[in-house]
Write a structure and sequence with these properties.
This protein is mostly helical. The protein has one domain. The protein contains ten helices and no strands. Helix 1 packs antiparallel against helix 2 and helix 5 runs antiparallel to helix 10. It starts with 6 loop residues before the first helix and ends with a helix.
Length: 261
């Protein structure tokens, strides 16, 4: 598969995957760049195989970004583990069902959810700038586990937008500031990516050589993006997050209109 790629196509993919890693490390939504780029490069390849390849590259970039954020984030290891574990399982289930379920109705729900995220964040200028925890410790864990599982299932089933939903969970629902939220979102997202890789890898043929090469680009984008976010602070991440969420709304809406027209 790799040997059939032209030099121009490979350069296009490398740039796209780098950009996806950069965007995803700051606000999530990198899949909106990465998945279409791979589908353009491999129009005759089964979608599930392309998605598996994309998830593999994204896993390395997300992990690298998480490690970079970890140097500047508070230690919330117990909460992260409590969310990542059920999210991993839910993502595996979603990935197993992905090839047999029509996702158009789910995409409509995603558009509505993204609209709500965008306007909620826009209406609260101070959201995520200062950490203001909500709920008692036990209740916080219960909410985080439930919504982490829902988001994990979504990531396995559809994918793009997972980072935005995780950021909403950590910032909008639980009250973390954006730097800590970015770190935790990346760890959980890495676990859901890993679950998808395992499930898809067992049932389909992931393009491993290509995925590992493109992982280099994704890691580079993730490291640079997370470094920019850390240096610019939570205010910058909020603005970037709003911009990426708005673009995701446009993209998913376009997909729905194209399908129905």
């Amino acid at each position: 598969m790799l040997e059939n790629l032209s030099t121009l196509t490979f350069i296009f993919l490398f740039i796209a995957i780098f950009a996806a890693g950069f965007v995803d490390s700051i606000a999530g939504g990198g899949g909106l760049i990465q998945n279409p780029a791979l589908l353009i490069a491999f129009p005759q390849t089964e979608t599930i195989q392309v998605v598996g390849t994309s998830k593999t590259a994204a896993f390395f970039g997300t992990t690298a970004a998480a490690l970079r954020y970890r140097m500047n984030a508070a230690n919330n290891g117990k909460l992260i583990a409590a969310i990542a574990s059920p999210a991993f399982i839910a993502s595996g289930i979603g990935s197993y069902l992905a090839s047999s379920i029509t996702t158009q109705q789910l995409k409509l729900a995603v558009v509505v959810a993204l609209f709500a995220i965008f306007f909620y964040t826009l209406s609260k200028p101070e959201l995520g700038k200062v950490e203001k925890m909500r709920y008692a410790n036990r209740r916080r864990f219960q909410i985080a586990i439930f919504w982490g599982s829902v988001i994990g299932f979504y990531d396995g089933l559809i994918g793009p937008g997972t980072g935005a939903f995780l950021m909403l969970l950590f910032v909008g629902v639980l009250g973390f500031e954006f730097i800590n939220a970015s770190f935790m979102a990346k760890v959980v997202n890495a676990s859901t990516n890993l679950a998808s890789i395992i499930v898809i890898g067992v049932g389909s043929s992931i393009m491993w050589k290509l995925a590992l090469i493109l992982a280099v680009a994704n890691v580079a984008g993730g490291l640079i993006g997370s470094s920019v976010a850390i240096s610019k602070g939570s205010g910058f991440i909020r603005k970037f997050y709003l911009g990426v969420t708005f673009i995701m709304i446009l993209r998913v809406t376009y997909d729905l209109i194209s399908h129905w027209s």
